[in-house]
Amino acid sequence: MSDLSRIVKAYDVRGTVPDQLNETVARALGAAFVRTLKERGDKADRIVIAHDMRESSPGLATAFARGANAAGAAVLYAGLASTDMLYYAAGALDLPGAMFTASHNPAEYNGIKLCRAGAAPVGQETGLTQIRDYAQALIDSGEAETLSGPEQIEQHDLLPEYAAHLRTLVDLSQIRPLTVVVDAGNGMGGYTVPAVLGDAELPALPLKIIPMYFELDGSFPNHEANPLNPENIVDLQKAVRERGADLGLAFDGDADRCFVVDERGEPVSPSAVTALVAARELAKYPGATVIHNLITSSAVPEIIRESGGEPVRSRVGHSFIKGEMARTNAVFGGEHSAHYYFRDFWFADTGMLAAMHVLAALGEQGQPLSQLAHKFERYVSSGEINSEVHDQQAKLAEVKKAYAGADIDELDGLTVSFDDGAWVNLRASNTEPLLRLNVEAPTTERMVALRDEVLALVRR
């Protein structure tokens, strides 16, 4: 019997196929999604469904559609899509949506990202717990096996209109010619990049795209589709240097995150990308609010203020970022994990639009990306370091006591700030017995000393 509490996470559904997530579970979740929308007073007579390139995705998506039909909703079935393409459909068509993907997880996983009409997020506090409970009841009673209703499934190709919409948001037609290596990691970037940045759907841009791993393959034969792991961008870095490219882009499995490397093959931090895009958006919308999570570099709020904007600090996670964006009507939001959110994109995240901003910023002037990005990189960061800790709260309390004389806040885990601009954040994982450490300081020496000092406390 499926226990949905094991696969329904804080923001989405994620589990192994077929033992945790199978077509019966998907059918139950489809019916429960529509029922929950109706009970909350949301639009629910029609939903849009899309999926990534995993072998299990089409079957799960179709089963979910039949469950939604059984609950009285018609389905617009988009087939292959990136997650931000599903958000595009939910926003442009004003429909609730379901995206079948496990993002960068290994091949045996799949999952579902849900949203309300207008791409508004669905998390545990906005209906996901209710969806889980309704679906569990359908599974436990055996009803999930026989859910049926009039089949109302209409096929719809989103790619051309998605590509056209993004092209209206950032004009790349007049930039200088750029050579761009793109590593799609066998994920959905291999489907979307030719349409948006190439000439598969629209007129050619002044971009020479050098594709890497564009073949859609949910077994990820070349490397894990998670560009935040340094070993997964080694091929991209090498190709950028060997081909003399202006930059490299790496997308994750569902292509909602984008990671950037400069012409030397060196990573451009997501904080620098956040600051760069924020400055561009604030040039278009003077005085607007920009959201950043508390692990992005201190350079981000500094540059937002220097650009005439209002920085607002948020907890980590898309539901918190999107919530703050909606509350403040923020023009943009960025995270250390390379998720980028845009008011012009229904407050949803899209790695492709962030990539287009980087291409525009680079192509509108003559400097190489390393020099351009340097303006947005002011501090030295440790990156995220995980430690296995079984009593996370006790360890957090111990570290807090050790730094009792410093400036401490607990917006998300424990953040300790020092007079010299250095800071430490220590957060508990939602899903594993881990503490996640991030450290930033004005110099490498200070960062290393502080990092090692905190790790000694955490791991003793």
Task: Please explain how this structure is put together.
- Helix content is 36%, strand content 22%.
- The model has no long low-confidence stretch (mean pLDDT 96).
- It has 460 residues and is α/β, with parallel strands linked by helices.
- Helix 8 crosses helix 11.
- The protein has three domains: 4-157, Alpha-D-Glucose-1,6-Bisphosphate, Chain A, domain 3; 158-378, Alpha-D-Glucose-1,6-Bisphosphate, subunit A, domain 3 (Alpha-D-Glucose-1,6-Bisphosphate, Chain A, domain 3), CATH 3.40.120.10; 380-459, 2-Layer Sandwich (TATA-Binding Protein), CATH 3.30.310.50.
- Strand 15 and strand 16 form a beta hairpin.
- One of its GO terms (molecular function) is intramolecular phosphotransferase activity.
- Pfam families: PGM_PMM_I, PGM_PMM_II, PGM_PMM_III, PGM_PMM_IV.
- Residues 384-455 form the Alpha-D-phosphohexomutase C-terminal domain.
- Its cofactor is Mg(2+).
What's the SSE blueprint?
Layout: E1 13-16, H1 23-39, E2 46-51, H2 57-70, E3 74-80, H3 83-92, E4 97-100, E5 109-116, E6 120-121, H4 128-141, E7 153-155, H5 159-169, E8 178-183, H6 189-196, E9 207-212, H7 234-243, E10 247-251, E11 258-261, E12 267-268, H8 270-284, E13 289-293, H9 299-306, E14 310-314, H10 318-328, E15 332-334, E16 340-342, E17 348-349, H11 351-363, H12 369-374, E18 380-381, E19 385-388, H13 392-402, E20 407-409, E21 414-417, E22 423-428, E23 434-441, H14 444-459
Protein name: Phosphomannomutase
Cofactor: Mg(2+)
GO biological process, one term: carbohydrate metabolic process
